[in-house]
Write a structure and sequence with these properties.
- This protein is mainly alpha-helical.
- The protein has one domain.
- It has 9 helices and 2 strands; from the N terminus they run ββααααααααα.
- A two-stranded antiparallel sheet has the order 1-2.
- Strand 1 and strand 2 form a beta hairpin.
- Helix 1 crosses helix 2, helix 7 packs antiparallel against helix 8 and helix 8 runs antiparallel to helix 9.
- The chain is globular.
- The C terminus is likely disordered.
Length: about 270
Amino acid sequence: MLNYPNIDPVIFSIGPAKVHWYGLMYIIGFAAVWFLGQMRAKMSWSPIKPESIEDLVTYGALGVILGGRIGYILFYNISDFLSNPLILLKIWQGGMSFHGGMLGVFVAMWFFSKKNQCSMLQLTDIIAPLAPIGLGAGRIGNFINSELWGHTSEVPWAMIFPNGGPLARHPSQLYEAFLEGMVLFILLWLYSKKLRPVGAITGLAMFFYGCFRFIVEFYRMPDAQLGYLALDWVTMGQILSLPMIIIGAALFYYSNKTMNIKLTPHNS
């Protein structure tokens, strides 16, 4: 068994204002998209110029935050919302959904694509290889917050979390940080180094994230207010990830087999 590091979730305070590690992880994720997005926007096939990345990140950040919050309420806490709709605004109480955030980003990229006269998939192909950095950082934030821990276990790397009871548990946040963060980033970054059909990178990202999340859910405790939804092992995370796997695989296959590469270079 390993000792849980028990890091203070608050980095520092200035009067009543507190800076949390979890919030810093969001900043790291958005900064990574901005920095690496500049590099990808310089490629000849990019539908936007590097100076447009700042606006793209702004749209994406709004999609992540609004979609993540709305998704959490609808997918994981709908009963409380129906009794008190104002909880939708109480972001400081916690509660964000990756799947909701992903849908929010797709909506944001759709609006941004209309503004820049390109396809939504061209934009998501640019940011998809960069998103795992934020995903991995976010899971590290969950670990520091001692939340979303796993089932009790006797594996040598199990930990006793401060609010997880007296028994050692799987550090499932670290499993997700590794798979959804590091492994997914490497896969997508290497695949996207070459010119690919429009939508292929997005499809691959959806497929692998869905697979990784589906697997880790076997080790992660379900949300307390929901529990298991079927068969004593099916979780909401798995139900939401299954369409990602199917749609991602279909998009990847369709992009490589039947879609024409419609690119509008701005460099020569």
